[in-house]
Amino acid sequence: MEEYIYCKACGYIMAKSHFTGRCPACGIPGEALFEAYTKQLSPGRRFLLDQHIHPIAVHFPQVLILITLLLPLIALVIGNPLREQLQIVAMLAIFVLPLTVLGGICTGLFDGRLRFRRVTTPLLVRKIIASVILQLLSLIILGVYLSSGFSGNAVWIIAALSAVGTACSIYLGRTGATMFSSFLPG
User: Fold this and answer.
1) Domain residues for 110?
2) What is the total count of domains within the chain?
3) Which of the listed residues 2, 27, 80, 83 has the most CB atoms within 10 Å of its CB?
4) What is the pLDDT of residues 133-184, one digit of tens each?
5) The predicted structure's pLDDT at residue 177
6) Helical (H) or strand (E) element with 105
7) Does residue 125 share a domain with residue 67?
């Protein structure tokens, strides 16, 4: 069974195995500020947290940003009719990506509020900033596609923006993984 600890400074609770010597919520260093904790969640909060709404929602933009990166580049080296089919799939991903990123942001805010009662902890603020950057990138990718399709340098611009978006997704995923079993009591 997983052991939990909590920060005496801010009340942040996390799995002991995720502790890195510093509270991810308030940033205070030191093991002396952490004590053992036994989970105590209201049934309603427990039910909502156990649905894993946000972790599920963020998989959609992660897959779509990779599609917008890889398929247009693969289409450059493959002949028709497969090229056209890859471009159609990439186009659909480009159109859906901003909506799925927005869904990830909304579920992240809900999850952050549910877990920590606020979304202003340093860790969540960094995730929000990275999410907004990913949202802006997804809209710029859509704008580039709408203005040029996959012609000329547009493929390379879309690929570059998608690579930066992929880096944002990786950062968000790795950061989120450290918070998966963290919450505030109540």
Assistant:
1) 44-179
2) 2
3) 83
4) 999 999 999 999 999 999 989 999 999 999 999 999 999 988 887 776 666 6
5) 77
6) helix 82-116
7) yes
Per the CB < 8 A criterion, the answer to whether 84 and 178 are in contact is: no
pLDDT higher than threshold 90 for residue 186 = no
In this structure, are 81 and 64 located in the same domain?
yes
Looking at residue 145, its pLDDT comes to 97
Nearest Cα to 182, choosing from 116, 128, 110, 120? 116
The CA distance from 100 to 68, in Å, is 13
* CA 105/CA 37 separation, integer angstroms: 30
List of E strands, 45-175: none
Check whether residue 51 and residue 15 sit in a common domain. Answer: no
d(C-alpha 155, C-alpha 149), whole Å: 8
Say how far apart CA 44 and CA 41 lie, in whole Å: 8
Are 136 and 156 in a shared domain?
Answer: yes
Phi, psi of 94 (to 5 degrees): -65, -40
